[in-house]
Specification:
heterotrimer; A mainly alpha; B alpha/beta; C mainly alpha; A: mainly alpha; ABC transporter involved in vitamin B12 uptake, BtuC; two-stranded antiparallel ribbon; 13 helices; C: mainly alpha; 2 domains; two-stranded antiparallel sheet; 26 helices; 6 strands; disordered C terminus
Chain lengths: 354, 425, 626
Amino acid sequence: MFKWRTDDFSWVDFTIDVLRVIIVLGVVIGAWNTLSSGRISLAQWVNLFAAGLSQGSIYALIALGYTLVYGILLMINFAHGEVFMAGAFSTVFLAEALNRTGFLNAQPLLAILLMIAFAGLVSMSVAILLERIAYRPLRGSPRLVPLITAIGASFFLQYTFRGLYGSGFKAYPGVNALQGAIEIGGISIPVVQVFVFCAAIFLMLCLYWLVERTRVGKAMRAVSENKEVARLMGIDIDWVIMFTFGVGGFLAGSAGVINGLFRPQGVNFYMGFIPGIKAFTAAVLGGIGNIPGAMLGGLFLGVIEAIGPNLVLAGLGIPGANQLKDVIAFTMLVLVLIFRPQGILGERLSETKA
Amino acid sequence: MFDKRLRLIGVLLLFSMLLPKSAAGAGCDDPLGCVEVGPNEPIVIGAMLVVSGAVSYLGEDSLGGVELALLRRGEELLGRELELVLEDSLCTAEGGQAAAQRLAADEAIVGVIGSSCSSAAQGAIPIISGAGMVMIAPSNTSPSLTNDNIDAGGSHLPGYFRTSHNGLMEGMRNAEFAMDILDAAAIATVHDGDPYTEGLARVVADTFADLGGDVVFEGAVNKGDTDMASILTEIAVSEPDVIYLPLFEPEVNFFAAQMQHIAGLEDVDIIGGGAAFVAGFPENTGEAAIGLYVSGPKVSGEAYDELLAAWDEEYGGTPPSGYHAHAYDAANILLDAVATAAVEADDGVLLIGRSAIREALAATENYPGLTGNLTCQEESPFAGDCATGTALAMFVITEAEVYDDNWPPPIAWNFETEPDDQAGD
Amino acid sequence: MNMLRAENSRSILTLGLLSGAFILFTGAVGMIAAFHEREVVDDVISLGQLLLLLAPFATGFVVSDRLRASGTGSLLIISSGVAVGLLTALPTVIMLLFNSDEYRFLLDLTLKLIPFVAATYYAWQQYRIGSDQRLIIGSWLAIVVLIGIVSFSFALIFEIKGDLRSVLPNISRDWVEVVTFDHPKELMTGIATLLLVSAGAGAAGSFMVLVPPIPRQALLYGLGVTLLVGAFGETVRLILQENVDRDTLKQIFRRDTLRQDPALMLFIVSTVAGFLWAMFGQQARQGFANLEPSRRRMVNGVGLLIFAGILLMLPWLIGRTLSDVAVTIGIFVLMGLGLNIAIGLAGLLDLGYVTNYAVGAYILAVLTSIGPLGRLDGVFTFWMVIPVALLAAMCAGFVFAVPVLRMRGDYLAIATLGFGEIIGKLAISDWLKPLIGGAQGVQAIPKPVFFGTELRNPEQLYYIVLVASLVTLFVSIRLNNSRTGRQWMAIREDEDVATAMGIDTARAKLLAFTLSAATGGVAGAIFAAKVGTVFPNSFTVFISINVLSLIIVGGIASNPGIVVGAVVLIGLPELLREFSDFRFLMYGALLVIMMIKRPQGFIPSKLVSHEIRAGVNAKAAAAAAN
């Protein structure tokens, strides 16, 4: 007979160990094959890594919205990808208008700031409305109920914006100041990637400051710790929750603009769905509810996606390796969760949160 | 709300069961039955397109083409009003099947324009064909749809026609272009997991290899990918002369735009498939699109300009994809076939034989469509293919398309007419 | 006659403007123009116009009902209805002005004024309650800047673009035509017509309040039935054409549109029926309640028998098209019952259920296909493969369960979501293309053959699904009451406590995942046989989401709930097909509304709703909400 128990040696542990070994072996062998063949040069690896970091920082910005809301309400705001879309889609028109007037290239920094503020505020309004209409009435219901509401809201928002702005693809205009590349030791990195990474890091630092150093941040932490006690302390919980949604929305909207500078094409009503799922994954990877975790998870996911297929899958001789980059990403996710079931930086889960 | 509905249905059912059922089709000797159109009734055309989901612009594009074709005739045929019934076939086999069930249940429908995606067609054809209807696809390209050899993966059934180019035809011509005109020795192909792009990429790779070329890279991205850096790096390492890229928007835009950042791909040409033959593509991609080749139907001249003007008038802007002209032609040959097949009975009833429509469509020969001369063929692997490839052209995108809203772009190369395509002459 | 109370006039204002915003929204997303193409009653009213009338009518009714409850006189009630109607039209009227050439400057002006007006209003409110002066000035500035960024940006966009339509394509000529009731050229006449019609509808709504309850109920019932039949004309026609001969059908429907005379007849019949129900319905229900228990059981038994009969006869009653929908619903019932074992019973949030569905479908496809990928030359039949698909799905469920046994809650959810994505990507990949066809999928899957009859139509496939669902239902009910079932529930409630009580949680969870996977495999196999081809793009995360949603909407851990959930969530989009472009918009909105109105699901399982509500965080959150 097998022993099933998990508290001493067990069959399950053994299987998981085998799985770990297989995955790690696959990664090592694939990477070894690729690196030893030397097909891809160091400069190319650095380029891929940099692109991955930029992509990852956008995931991280969206992931922060998931994590903030989760930290306070313990709910997955599945419609958060649509909040991102709302800002990105609306701002495409502003970007076009600014480009047409010439302001975008005359004062790129100001124009981008204006766009970020605009997108942030639009997404913020959507997020706050979402909370007010769809989630607030459901506070205190079983945990899966708001999840379904969020899925419904996600459909609703997608098709609303499709109805409002049409279904065709739009694109952000190019910003001249962000063209070109920076040369560091023979490796050239596009300026836009540097800008995207820095902008995202800056926004995250702002958020960190907001949560850790301000009064409203203190209130947010108090509410996420214990709503009952926070209420007794005189904190207006409804307002704090609304504020949290607003901050998450603002970050998602600004991520929309930053994404638009980095990957200008493909702006349409459906653009939020996949980044939403990726960002959700990133948030969980980092340990959901944990702000630095979301950042780390986003960057990790971005980098894995960028270098994983070429490094591992191509090395294993799998055709169409890039098609399977999500397989790499999710396998890494499962691997991380096997080692650390609470995510990279997450706290150990007690039964109250699980 | 629901119990009310149930009650209502119950009442209606009871009411209806009292009425006798009668057999239909007096005076019709068509083996597949007839569509009877009473004196004041409209002639109904079905459309089965992708209306919701990520690629709904494809359906919007084709629907516009069909509607404009009806509009050009004043929404009238044989003195009857023309009516269009639209079903959402999504872009999946089951969506196609569900839409086909609905359309097949409507006896008044003379024929169907659709589907948008080949996978939806796979689900729909057995039902549409079984109902005796015809289906003319404006944007299916899968070779299997017109191949009737099951062992080779074929799934053609009678009643299926298409005005879009068979992937075999388009792919072969594109590979020839790469080899003969661009003088490429090595090609890389990329698809996105869509049956359409995968099929084209495979045909191009096979043809290119048959012609003696070297296929150095066959890869794929996912729908929804925005980051193309890793596949571009792999391609750069393989050192192709030309990349064959039959992707849709927005992946094709990302691909073209990000190519600029990758060292080693500066002198590599890109050939886009019909999916990139869209007015919005150059504009959305920016300067990176300049110099790209895009294969598409040779839609130029006055008739097409009129269509574009009508589009702007009716919907505003330009069509969101490159299949509206195929859809326009599809609607026109269907309406012509209906006009040929229709017989006016004594009592003012129009009898339109279903097999007569099929025959009339199959007999379409050298119809001067927007997408070239259409001749519907009957021999597998082109059974039901009405686009002969004579009008396939390779366009090159210039600054005018990127910055000045010019469309269509200048033709880089016009595919020569092959002798067997003129067999009908 | 008494005066309006302050709260009443406020409710007129807010509700009126809300319904106005609703009308403007439906116009801006293109609903009104698109729905105008569909006539509800031939040559009388289109769906778009109905929408324009229904909003002020319903709002007028609701507002007046409130007024009457607070004892307002009838004249004031009617005039409040008029006011609601005018308010409902107001946003649309403003948008019409913005859209016209002469008054476009108003748009710019309004957008630039909004931040100042809003900020000043807020500051005035603050001033009235005596806030600190610095705070007032600060908040005034903040609001001006925040709203100003958005509204000045919009002003810039519209100025550069030149007109509304290039940003909002659905503020189109068609829309103008509908909302001005065919006066697109004479704008002022159009606006006047809109205001008049809307005010009339509002007044009619409030008039309904004054009608005595019984005739009112009858009238509303008759109106509702007629309009619903008209609005869902296609579905009704599909059912009718099974049972009525063609000529009669043509007299009732012109294509999918209800003709005038039948509509009138339907209205009269349903009003009379509604009247009778309003008069005697209460009595009938009372009578039933007063019956002896044995009699009542008999009545219930007869009802059940009729229900079973309908279930058996369903394909004949509803025809081929709707049978096709019924088969799809059945496939989702199967999956719902399966996933319920993991989610409902054991509390394991599995977002990767599509894995099992895909495994089942591909197993059937590869084993039975007569095309190039089915290398077995059709040796296997559908019936032989069903158990294989079931076992394969169970194996898949087992294999994927092992690595996630230690994960909890949302970590489990995202890991299983990942498995779903992995399977989808593998199915589409070039890597496995030689085996399962990659992007091109597997074609030429033969239909099941039952004693020499090929079951090619949905009417026939329906019975396969029905039998499979009944078997699963039976197993599921047995499981629910078994020892294992109780172990699962213990794990669902508290895993740590369950372990402490000596339950082998690893074994129980593995069992839950494995059993839950089984029906997914069968559902996938039936799906593949039904469609006849398998494409990888059928196996997306939306399948998992749909199955999860139908469980929650129906009522978690409740078997009848799952059936109802499947009928609603899978049937609804099919029913909404008539609203083509907008079906997912409406589906999303309905999902949100359903969850808010019935968070416990349509048919909640009594046990679970207690248990889940008692969760620690639920308590805390409830306390917070109070």
